[in-house]
Amino acid sequence: MRKAIKTVVTFALVAVIGISNVTYVKATSISDLQEEKRENESKKEEAEGILSQLEQEQLGIKEAIKELDSKVAEYNTQIVELEAQRLELEADIEETKKELETAQKDEKKQYEAMKLRIQYAYENGNIDYMDTLFSSSDVADMVNKSEYVDQIYKFDAKMLADLIAIRKLIADTQVKLESDLAAVKGIEEDVNESKEALEIVIEGKEKQVANYGASIDQYEAMVAEYQKAIEETDAAIAEAERKAAEAAAANGGTVYYTGGALGWPVNGYYYISSYFGPRDLLGMSFHHGVDIPCPTGTPILASEAGTVITAGWSYSLGNYVVIDHGGGMTTVYGHNSSFAVSAGTVVSKGQVIAYAGSTGQSTGPHCHIAVRINGNYVDPLPYLQ
Predict the structure, then answer these.
(1) What is the DSSP letter of 279?
(2) For residues 164 and 380, which has the higher predicted lDDT (pLDDT)?
(3) Rounded distance, CA 139 to CA 131, Å?
(4) pTM of the entire predicted model
(5) What count of Cα atoms within 13 Å lies in the side-chain half-sphere of residue 53?
(6) What was the pLDDT predicted at 368?
(7) From residue 368, how far is each of 159, 293, 300, 332, 380 by CA, in Å?
(8) For a Cys-Cys bond, which of 91, 167, 178, 272 suits 103, CB 3.0-4.6 Å?
């Protein structure tokens, strides 16, 4: 009744990446910061992949434990039923033994009485048993002595035969009951053995679940560390871009944005699928811009004249472009399929800078546009025309 259950455990994955490999902000140039960010995003993605696999495998083991627990419950039910059968059979056997003892005594008593009557008849001839069995002389007169003696013999023989048959039936019943009891005990032992084997398997699987839990905790902490490093790098990039804009202005750089509305980044597409602000009730996820759905390859336009200070890759934004418009304002365009500019390019308002796509953390092709004032994200809608 045993069923071998084999589980593939992939603890070899554990410790592939160590938290000590998290790269915290050390660089100062925008390009170096972006490289650090890419490195942490890659490691985070790898850790998330392993974490997801560990969680799936742990879930599979938990499901297997549920099935095994259900089987153990079935075995427990069988054991209870078998124990009840065994107790009933043992009680029946005890009762049968008592009945057999009584039957054996009755048979022996009848046999001894018949022997005495036969012996008495032999020693005294064919005399009447009336004086032995009955005290009334009137009865003796009612029947013929020889006929009565014959009836007594026949009665004795029939009584003995009946008692022998009863004793044999009881003995046969006892044999059958004992055979049934042995069978029930055998089945009960098999069920108990199967149950114990399953309980050993369950115990092993529960240890596997605990081991997976420890590894999952480790990788969750690792992912959190990478996310923290990425956020620190994002802040450092924003600060570096702000300082770059300030330096450009101090060195005679052009201030392109002097007020008014920014240009809409995609011609012909005006529906907004996601607005600036929290994306969940707890504020755990915050959207720093607005999303405008449009087909892959749609031209993305600069919302204002300025200088491209970043045209690179981000884990979250995919291919993104940052344009410095002077005066502390920058605009960000994310999830592009490809670029039309590079860092250092001076662009005019409405110039094609990229093409829409769904790179990075995206659920479909769209233009993500964000506005930063002095390095801080603000709602872009009040600025957009």
Answers:
(1) S
(2) 380
(3) 10
(4) 0.45
(5) 13
(6) 95
(7) 109, 9, 10, 8, 11
(8) 167
- Structural domains in the chain, CATH included, are 25-120+164-230 (1.10.287.2610), 255-378 (2.70.70.10)
| CA 289 – CA 292 distance, rounded (Å) | 10
User: 208-238 pLDDT, tens per residue?
Assistant: 888 888 888 888 888 888 888 878 877 777 7
Q: How many helices (H) and strands (E) does the chain have?
A: 4, 11
The encoded tokens of residue 19 equal 């938290």
Give residues with Cβ within 8 angstroms of 224, minimum separation 6: none
Going by C-alpha positions, the residue among 289, 313, 292 that lies closest to residue 301 is 292
Q: With CA atoms as reference, report the closest residue to 81 among 184, 177, 179.
A: 184
Tell me the one-letter amino acid at 253. G
Helix (H) or strand (E) holding 84: helix 30-124
Backbone angles phi, psi at 272, to 5 degrees: -110, 120
Mean pLDDT over residues 294-306, rounded?
95
The one-letter amino acid at 148: Y
Contact 357, 319 (CB under 8 A): yes
Whole-angstrom distance, CA of residue 228 vs CA of residue 22: 10
Q: 324-368, pLDDT tens digit by residue?
A: 898 788 999 999 999 999 988 999 999 999 999 999 888 899 999
8-state DSSP, 21: G
What's the mean per-residue pLDDT of the chain?
77
Give the three-state DSSP class for 317.
Answer: coil
User: What SS3 class is residue 304?
Assistant: coil
